[in-house]
Amino acid sequence: MNNRNYISIICICITLLMGFQSALSQQIIERDSQIEQMVNEVSSDSLRSYIDKLVSFGTRSTLSSTTDKKRGIGAAREWVLMKFQQFARNSGGRLNATLDTVTLPADKRRLDVATNLGNIIATLKGTDPNDKRVFMISGHIDSRSTDVMNRTNDAPGANDDGSGVAAVMETARIMSNRSFPATIIFVAFSGEEQGLLGAEYMAAKMKDQQIELEALLNNDIMGSNHSNGTNIINNAMVRVFSEGLPAYETDKKAGMIRSMGMENDGGSRQLARYIKEVGERYVDNLEVKLIFRSDRFLRGGDQTPFLQKGFTAIRISEMNENFDHQHQDLKTVNNIEYGDLAKFMDFEYLRKNTALNLACLANLAKSPAKPAQVKMEVKSLSNFTTLSWPSISENTDIGYYVLIRESSSPVWQKKFYTKQHTIKLPYSKDNYVFAVQSVSNQHNESLPVMPVADR
């Protein structure tokens, strides 16, 4: 082989190698750069500082003092309110915070005296006056010891649910510096351990006021990476719980649900799928595990009152719970240390779970309105499926994704993009499940809308 041929071969190899490296560097996942930047701002140090402060109040029992300046639920909720107000100063007037209180009478169950209940709420107002949608993130500020009626013992509540409140606060800190067309509400509920009282109060209030709450992301126990008993350690998975059949007016919807085969397609189930797709898009080294039940056995969460009022809501929780550090007095027995302390948490794991919330909230709040209604033609026998929906606005930048999955699949499997308001696909409606979501040019998708039969 002469030198000229040898040099030519080397040049070809270099060119191929450069092309291969270029292909590897191409971005496969389409990310909104603003959301990506916000995700990168989530800080494990900030999260740790919030939890250390919450633990410093000794107990946050709903039954504890509301007037003591240093100890108890009153001091804790005033501090969270102060932090929300601090974030509001950088929001250009878009964020406002309040302590929404109500006095509940003794109920002979978990309220032995009349109790002042207070939810801490920060609202980031949407910039589009015509956009009435609201998206919400929550955790619960109250804690408990083994005896839920004990208001004096230390109940640090670092993970249950300091982790959820810290995620709410960190999300508010970062998102308050940006603007979104839709409104976002950040809330720390009180009274969860006494029977979901704060969430029940707020859900009823939002229902009465006809607030267009499209989605609630409730965070409860999301900052520990290891389980007791089985000793599984994993900080790369997180659970999302979602109900199947709706808790609200199931009897009125049952006929349509059965006829369309939508037992696995309620609003909360769609939100859970959305969180998996969008969350895994933006948060590296985190897998969202879909749990198809509304909550864990023998337990409950603040999403439940919202589901009962007909709102779409899910619960986000760590993959492997450690019951040595939940609902426990501080003690050591047989060399096992009990109690919900910050030293048992994984703050990198909490950072990822917080980023999951932020990415999904931001994507929802930036998305176009979802289609008002989707119809599926069922008048004729065909191996094609025709879907149609009305235009949501005159904005020509808005497109639509048509989603498809087999009826047995937990997640969407195919996605077709169109700018039209009708589509005919060579997939039989007898074999597949369909939905439509609107999408912006920045790849911000609305929640999916299931079709109704067009007879």
CATH class of the largest domain: Alpha Beta
Number of domain units: 2
Beta-strand portion reads 15-25%
For the biggest β-sheet, the strand order reads 1-2-4-3-5-8-6-7
Indicate the radius of gyration in whole angstroms: 24 Å
Question: What's the CATH topology label of the largest domain?
Answer: Aminopeptidase
Q: SS-based structural class?
A: alpha/beta
Mean pLDDT: 92
Major pleated sheet: 8 strands, mixed
Parts with pLDDT < 50 across at least 5 consecutive residues: 22-26
Q: What letter string, H or E per element, gives the SSE order?
A: HHHHEEEHEHEEHHEHEEEHEEEEEEE
What's the total count of β strands?
17
Q: Label the CATH architecture of the largest domain.
A: 3-Layer(aba) Sandwich
How many separate helices?
A: 10
**Global outline:** globular
Q: State the share of residues found in helices, binned by percent.
A: 25-40%
CATH superfamily of the largest domain: Zn peptidases
The separation of the N and C termini measures 75 Å
Describe it for me?
The protein has 455 residues and is α/β, with parallel strands linked by helices. The protein folds into two domains: 334 residues, Aminopeptidase, CATH 3.40.630.10; 81 residues, Sandwich (Immunoglobulin-like), CATH 2.60.40.10. Helices cover 31% and strands 22% of the residues. It contains ten helices and 17 strands. The strands form four sheets. Strands 1-2-4-3-5-8-6-7 form an eight-stranded mixed β-sheet, sandwiched between helices. A hairpin with a 7-residue loop joins strand 11 and strand 12. The termini are far apart.
